Amino acid sequence: MSKAPRPQKKAPASKRASGARKRETATLGRRLAAMAGGGLVVAAVAALVVAGGAVWVYGGPGPKAKNGEYTSVVLRRGASVSEIAGALEAGGAIRSSSLFLTASQITGAARRLKAGEYEFPTGASLSTVLAMVRDGKVVRHQVTVPEGVTSEMVVEILQRSDVLVGDVPTPPEGAVLPETYQVERGEERAAVLQRMMDDRDKVLNALWADREQGLPFQTKDEAVTLASIVEKETGLASERPRVAALFINRLRIGMRLDTDPTVIYGITRGRPLGRGLRRSELDTVTPYNTYKIPGLPPTPIANPGRAALAAVMNPPKTDELYFVADGTGGHVFAKTYEEHERNVAQWRKIERQAKTTAPPSAGD
User: Fold this and answer.
1) Is residue 93 within 8 Å of residue 63, measured between CB atoms?
2) Tens of pLDDT along 271-298?
3) pLDDT tens-digit series, residues 21-59
4) For position 11, what pLDDT does the model report?
5) Is residue 320 part of a domain?
6) Tens digits of residue pLDDT in 117-157
7) What's the pLDDT band for 12 if we cut at 50, 70, 90?
8) For residue 100, which of 138, 128, 126, 135 has the smallest C-alpha distance?
9) Nearest to 335 by CA among 253, 233, 224, 259
10) What Cα–Cα distance (Å) separates residue 12 from each residue in 5, 8, 16, 302, 304?
11) In angstroms, how far is CA 222 from the centroid of its own chain?
């Protein structure tokens, strides 16, 4: 005989509630996990968007120049990285100073940024701007010192430059090498002058080491003095060696130099006289009147250039002792006084012809 099945026991109500809660908790956990996963994806996408935007700003086109093809910005010497970044943003070279700061730190450029005046091409990317400031690609200006100017005139040239700063002392006569020099905005005038003097010393030392033996001067200073006279006596580069040889020939035989530029220097300190020398000036004994004193004057009368210095260190071999203007900017040279007198007579004739053919002045 079969037995009737036993009735199943129902779980207590508290257990049933506990199971339901577990199922609900599991469902909620899955929901929260799904939501968290979605949030991470959103955050990741947002991060990518931000990163992509930063990369675009870093490498993409920068601001357009307000005027012309370049944006000019001057970065102060001693400025911090944050100040540089601010100046670049304020000047319109970059859009974001904070991104410039970050990029300079990440790339290691922060400790290598250089002050100076910059011209950034219109639309230059932030990466281009950072590279230019890191590499110091500043705007270069020029200061030109012509051959044959005095040291006072050199100082005036430096003072006229509106890109240089500071005061500058007057150097000794003949201490500067006439040349065109590259300078930066904000550079000290005294530093530029020192560079000019250092260049003169380098050139002078090299030429002195290779000079011809037996020259009639004993020191570098005397060589510079003679070179300054050569510089002032002729405006033709091709004549410098010949004029140098002539004066060296005179010094060797104890003949006076008889040169007008030294007399003028004694009167005006090298400023243009604006007229011919008077007989009274030629007859007055001064340390610079080489018509009256033997040998060289006590100092140079100008700053001679490289070619004039080279000419007196290694002059050509000649027998010439005299020269006079030829009316074309050059000179006629002679070995004897008689030949020189004929050349002088010809020069006087040229002068007279020039006076008779000159147009009358407004007051005539």
Assistant:
1) yes
2) 999 999 999 999 999 999 999 999 999 9
3) 555 545 545 554 554 455 544 343 334 334 444 565 677
4) 52
5) yes
6) 999 999 999 999 999 999 999 999 999 999 999 999 999 99
7) low
8) 126
9) 253
10) 21, 12, 7, 119, 117
11) 30
Task: Find out whether 164 and 192 touch, Cβ atoms under 8 Å.
Answer: yes
Q: CA nearest 249: which of 264, 230, 228?
A: 230
Residue holding tokens 């006084």? 337
Mean pLDDT of the chain: 87
Residue 261: domain span:
212-357
Residue 341 lies in a domain: yes
Query: Mean per-residue pLDDT for 156-174?
Result: 97
How many domains, the chain?
A: 3
My answer on whether 271 and 323 are in the same domain is: yes
Instruction: Check whether residue 149 and residue 223 sit in a common domain.
Output: no
- What span, in angstroms and rounded, lies between the C-alpha atoms of 217 and 295? 9
Q: What is the mean pLDDT of residues 227-235?
A: 95
Which has the higher per-residue pLDDT, 15 or 355? 355
The total number of residues shown for the chain amounts to 364
